[in-house]
Hints:
The protein has one helix spanning 13-16, and strands at 5-6, 21-27, 32-35, 51-58. It is mainly beta and 73 residues long.
Amino acid sequence: MSEWIDFDRWQECPRLARPGYVFEVTNAEGQSLFTACEVPLRPPSSWTSAPVRFRLVEAPKPRHSTPIPKPRS
């Protein structure tokens, strides 16, 4: 993991991006999200405060979901 960077520098994310890594972005309330570099970033609608910092982290490993049950007859 990299060090936290002030969100004012988010426009630098294309230079920092690397394969197999994503950005973790947090807001003042401690909420976080994992995202690719998108300038400008569109935070989730549930966020009531603006992003304050970000860092480059290893992309989470994919998880298999449980199979969908077959329909009942």
